[in-house]
Amino acid sequence: MSANPQQSPPNKSSRPDLVNGPIAKTLLMFALPVLGSNILQSLNASVNAIWVGHYLGEAALTATSNANIILFFLLGVVFGISMATTILVGQSIGGRDINRAKRVVGTGATFFATLSILVAAAGYIFTPHILAMMQTPADAAPYAIAYLRIIFIALPMMYFYNFMMMTLRGAGDSRTPFYFMLLSVGLDIALNPLLIFGLGPVPAMGIAGSALATLIAQSGSLLLMIAFLYRRKHFLALHSNELNYLKPDLTILRALVLKGLPMGLQMLVISSSALVMISLVNGYGSQVTAGYGVTSQLWTYVQMPALALGASVSSMAAQNIGAGRWDRVSRIAGIGVGYNFLLTGALVALLYLFDHAALGLFLPHEGEAMAVARHINNIVAWSFVLFGVTMVLFGVVRSTGAVMAPLVTLFIAIWLVRLPFAKWLIPTYGAEAIWWSFPLGSVVLIVLAMAYYRYGGWRKAHMLAAQPRGLAPDTGMATPAMTAVDEKPAS
């Protein structure tokens, strides 16, 4: 017997409401914890870089820069699946279908657990080969191998932690992930100096200690978050009589993979291009690579509002689509873009005003690496405002299940414009070609994204089932088909 596809959620006071009320306030209140989580993640990486850069040397800092790009690449592998989980859970909650939301959670949990173990094992074995392919400088390679292998051990916890956060956000809860991210980062920051330098019976582990701190912090925070959700009787927590949800639902799994793969490929397009970029930069030596790595650390902060807004508008739009509230979706996009100009623009302005002080947190105030870092930042930083607009528009578009167009536009801007520009002009302009390729790619990307948002067919996309006849979502009143898996579409 199939479960009731219209099983209602718990009373409204127990969960955030993204479907009713003022859009601007609701979006801001939802986005702020997401932004806080993103800032904490970047702060964690930055504090680790400060310890490594100031006390272990530039070769060790170069090692972590190379290793972190690989980690970003690996997280990009599953970003799309977790984002598809967010959208499916959000549309299910908006449509008041808790049964399907739980089936999404169970299917996703099984998939993430299996995939993470396979990726971690392969990565651990092939770590030296991966770093060699990146042309990691010889003086940094031993540090990078020691660091990255422990990160691979931590990868299953990272994957599942990311899955849990995205699931909760799809359900309308961005605060719980923030609180446990705060715990994780606090643990990581506290453990870094202890494990790097040693104290009493704890041996000095050097750069490997920094990676071990991440492993302990992520694992501990994840386990505590799971315990907290069960203690609070979260409506998506699976209990002993619901373990059948862990058996993959093929319809949902197909949607997660087919819709998630293009979204994951978006991250892979970005991270793989970063691998190419770091390979180009590595050719100029450790000083330039260190300068580039530090500016990349600061750029993660500048991108935080855009990424938070992109994730937030996606969750909010998904619930409104599930509830049939198309009248609110375009307003969510417009308000999200406005917030991006306000928040990202303010960060870019501050970075230009205080770049020397900010970069000085990671590098000696005098030296070649500092000069290189300031020069790169002056060329690139402003373009992240344009990047933010693109992230918001992509967030709304993908909430319907339209995932191919964002992937194609991103591929064009990065792989057909940015990278060829850098590689072809390096013989003439040297490293300047690399730095100027960033704003060029951002301009192309925003033009393509705005064109698709205005003229594309994303409003007719769907996640699970074919659009039933008679609905016309482009009128602003209907919703793409989100028929429960165990219901048949209306004939």
Descriptive notes:
- Keywords: Cell membrane, Membrane, Transmembrane, Transmembrane helix, Transport.
- It holds the Pfam family MatE.
- This is MATE family efflux transporter.
- It is a multi-pass membrane protein.
- Its main location: membrane.
- It is a single chain.
- This protein is an all-alpha fold and 491 residues long.
- The protein has one domain (21-459).
- Helices cover 75% and strands 0% of the residues.
- The chain is built from 14 helices and no strands.
- Helix 5 (175-197) packs antiparallel against helix 6, helix 8 (286-322) runs antiparallel to helix 9 and helix 13 runs antiparallel to helix 14 (432-455).
- The chain is globular, with a radius of gyration of 22 Å.
- The model is unreliable at 1-14 and 466-491 (pLDDT under 50).
